[in-house]
Design a protein that fits this description.
It is a single chain. The chain has one domain. It is 45% helix and 8% strand. The protein contains three helices and two strands, in the order αββαα. It has a two-stranded antiparallel sheet with strand order 1-2. The radius of gyration is 20 Å and the shape is flat. It starts with 6 loop residues before the first helix and ends in a 12-residue tail after the last helix. The relative contact order is 0.11.
């Protein structure tokens, strides 16, 4: 009886399967407190491609809101080229947001370096 999976453990396993990782971290803001508050966000709508990454629910809503202004079906005479173009535009938006997060973290590290003593490893003899 002790080897049964609890309902909470079962929910976490489902979360990890849904997110495609056992260590979910929001790519936009770094949130990682609870996998149930995370979502697998597709870079471009699923009709165009299935690639994605983990975002917290709030960042996912913010990133996907502009997509509501576009048709999900290709509108041009060259749907393959349009699909590739939409995918690249969406990927560029992901990179832009990730770059902002990296820049903010870098600025934070530089700021912290003025207040934190350097690491001095202990000598083991």
């Amino acid at each position: 009886m002790d080897d049964l999976i609890s309902p909470e453990e079962l929910r976490r396993e489902r979360d990890y399967d849904r997110l495609r990782t056992r260590n979910p971290v929001c790519l936009a803001c770094g949130y990682m407190n609870h996998p149930a508050a995370m979502e697998l966000a597709h870079i471009a709508p699923r009709q165009f491609h299935d690639d994605g990454g983990v975002l917290c629910s709030n960042c996912h809503r913010e990133m996907s809101d502009p997509e509501k202004d576009f048709s999900y079906a290709p509108q041009s005479i060259n749907p393959q080229m349009e699909t590739i173009g939409r995918y690249l535009l969406a990927l560029a938006e992901w990179f832009r947001r990730i770059a902002e997060t990296i820049a903010a973290f870098g600025a934070w590290l530089v700021d912290q370096s003025a207040h934190v003593l350097p690491h001095e490893p202990e000598c083991i003899s």
